[in-house]
Every structure is written in structure tokens, then in C-alpha cells.
Amino acid sequence: MKFWNYGIIIVCVSMLVLSSGVVSAQTISDGQNDVIKSQMGSSFQTNQTKPDVDVKQITCTITGDTLTLELEIYGTIQQISPYTYYAAVNTTDYQYIIIMGDGHASTIVADPAGSDYFLDNPEPIVGEHTISAVFETHGNATIVEIFGYAKYSSISISPDMYQDWAPDSRGPEVSFDTGGDASKTTSNPSTPGFEAIAAIAAIGIAFILLKRRK
Ligand SMILES: [Ca+2]
Questions:
Q1: Is the pTM of this model over 0.70?
Q2: What is the Å distance from ligand 1's center to 110 Cα?
Q3: Measuring CA to CA, which of 17, 109, 128, 211 is 20 to 30 A from 151?
């Protein structure tokens, strides 16, 4: 093989290596009308309709030094009591959290033990259906797990609580025999399209260039 051909292969392998570190993402999609209603912390009723606490999707995307976390619901984000919205991503070194309760939204970045944390975190962005935040990454930011919930709870007015978790396995009803529908949760643990496209492009370029040199 000629020196030129080695050069092409080195360039293409480099593209593959670089592309694999640029973007990583994970999404959990959650079913509609699967809100859980409970009274005084028990007697769970599943598949309830309450759009404003019905989780639709949680997405985490890491691009370079930026981590974007977003919680999306089917209804409208309610910036009032007694609604709570929560989304978290566990990475190798830190947990990134968005939380909004009683209309007050904030973000947290801490290690799993909660002993090491950052104070200078981004303001959450609240939309009609979404609440999101764009964090700066700290340490090793490889995605380990994402999860979240939306909750309506008003002890003072009514003992009813409505909540929806994603993935479903995080929900409070899992320990009860409700026949929870785990099939509604789809997880995409590795990453997407971008790396596959970059890989195909790199292989394609290598193939074309090598063919030309023959
Ligand atoms: Ca849902």
C-alpha cells in the first residue's frame, strides 16, 4: 500500500474518533394519559388523564462542554403551586438537575453524594410545554441515566396526588401490582444519528479516495 493510502486511512480514522466525542444524547419517551393518581400516598390508580403533569419526553444532549437537559410534558407547564417538575441526568462524575416547584425554577449540579456541588448554575428556561437548562459540563460527563417526573400535590386542599415518572420503572406504582406498562418507555442509550452519519461519511470518503488512487 502506498504512503498516500495510509494517509487517507489515518484521516478517516481520526474523523471517526473525533465524531464519537462531539455529541452524545439520550431520550426517554413517555406515554400519554398515564398519570398516576393516589390518595394519602396509597391506592394508586394508573392511566389517569392530567396533561399538565403528564410527562412526554426527557432529553439530554451533550455537545462539547455543553449539556442540555429538557423535560417536556403533554399539557402546559404550570408555574404555580402545587405543581412540581423535575428532570435529572446522572453522568459519570456529576448529577445535573432541573427542579421547579410552586413556580420557582432552579438548577443543581452535584456529585452523587451531594458533598461536591457547583453554585454558579444556569437559569432554567420555561416554555409552554418544556422546562430546560443548558449546563456547562464538569468532569467526565458521560450519560449514565436520565429520569424525571411531574407532580401535582395539594395536601391542604385535597389528599389527591397526581404524578407521572419517566422511565416508568421510577414510578411509585411499580412496587404495586398494577400491571404497569413498561412498553411505553423507549430508551435510546447510545447516541444517535450524528455518529452513525459521520462514520458512514468517513468510510465513504475512504472508499472513494482509495478507489481513485488505484
Ligand atoms: Ca406520560
A1: yes
A2: 27
A3: 109
Range of the domain at 52: 24-189
Tally of domains in the chain: 1
Alpha helices in 129-182 (DSSP H): none
Cα 57 to averaged position of ligand 1 atoms, centre (Å): 8
Q: Is residue 15 part of a domain?
A: no
In the reported structure, the alpha carbon of residue 32 is separated from the centroid of ligand 1 by a whole-number distance in angstroms of 5
Tell me how far the alpha carbon of residue 36 is from its chain's centroid: 21
Tens of pLDDT, residues 29-63 = 999 999 999 987 678 899 999 999 999 999 999 99
| Distance (Å) of CA 171 to CA 99, 154, 206, 214 | 17, 19, 48, 60
Residue 18 lies in a domain: no
Classify residue 31: in a domain, yes or no.
yes
Q: How far is the CA of 104 from the centre of ligand 1 (A)?
A: 22
